[in-house]
C-alpha cells in the first residue's frame, strides 16, 4: 500500500503573514487525516515560521526548489542544507522552473542527487506540453524526462506527473488519461529500480486538481495523490483534496 501524498505548491504566493493565516485555518481541517501525507511548500521566507507552526502536527514541509551545490556564490539560491533545516521535501524540475528558469533534465538530476545526499525527499515533476500531447508524444517525453532526470539517483523520491497544459488552466486531464501516463512512468521506474521498488514509489498527478475532481484521480490504480497549485492557496480547497485522498484509502 502506498500512502497518498497531497502536496500544496504555493508558488510565488503568500507573504509570511498570509502564510500563517492560511496554515492556522488549514491545520484544524487536516488534523485527523492520518491516512494521507499532507505537505506544504510555501515560498522560502515562510519556511521558518511555518515550520514552527507545523511542529507537533503530521503536516510536512517542503521547498519549491533548491540549488545542487552545498554553498557558494549562487546569488538568490537555496542550498540543500538550508532546505533541510526546515523541510523534509523539495519540489524539483517543476515545468515553470524548466520554462522560465532554464532547468533541464541535467540540472534536475544534479538537484535530485543533492537532495537525496542531504536526506530530503524530492518531488520530481515531469510532463508534456500541449503540442507534444497533441502529437501523441506524451509517453516518450515523460519517459525521457524520467530516465535522464533520475540517472544514478535512489528510489527515495516522489514523482509528480503534471501535463503542462493542465497547470493553472482549469483544464485537468481525465483520471484515466493521467493514470495511463503514470503507468508508463511506473514501468520506467521498474527498469531503473526494479519492479518491487517501482511499486513503492508514490506518483502524484498535478494540474488543475480541486476538491470537485480529486476523487476522479485518487480512485485510479496508479495515482497516489496530487501536487496542487491554485487550490492549495485556500484552506478549504486544500482540505477538500486531502479529504478525497483520505476517502480513497
Ligand atoms: P495548479 O498547479 O493546481 O494550479 O494547476 C499545479 C502545479 O503547478 O503544481
Feature tags:
TIM Barrel; binds 2-phosphoglycolic acid; 249 residues; 11 helices; alpha/beta; 8-stranded parallel barrel; 14% strand; globular
Q: How would you characterize the overall build of this protein?
A:
By secondary structure, the chain is of the alpha/beta class. It has a single domain (5-248), classed as Aldolase class I (TIM Barrel, Alpha-Beta Barrel), CATH 3.20.20.70. The protein has helices spanning 16-30, 47-54, 80-84, 95-100, 105-117, 130-134, 138-149, 175-193, 195-200, 214-218, 235-248, and strands spanning 5-9, 37-41, 60-63, 89-92, 121-126, 158-161, 203-206, 225-228. The chain has an 8-stranded parallel β-barrel with strand order 1-2-3-4-5-6-7-8, surrounded by 5 helices. α1 (16-30) packs parallel to α2 (47-54). The longest helix has 19 residues, at 175-193. The radius of gyration is 17 Å and the shape is globular. The N and C termini lie close together (9 Å). Bound molecules: 2-phosphoglycolic acid (PGA). 2-phosphoglycolic acid is lined by residues 9, 162, 167-168, 206-209, 227-231.
Question: What is the strand and helix layout of this fold?
Answer:
Layout: E1 5-9, H1 16-30, E2 37-41, H2 47-54, E3 60-63, H3 80-84, E4 89-92, H4 95-100, H5 105-117, E5 121-126, H6 130-134, H7 138-149, E6 158-161, H8 175-193, H9 195-200, E7 203-206, H10 214-218, E8 225-228, H11 235-248
Parallel strand pairs: 1-2, 1-8, 2-3, 3-4, 4-5, 5-6, 6-7, 7-8
Summarize the structure.
The protein has 249 residues and is an alpha/beta fold. Helix content is 43%, strand content 14%.
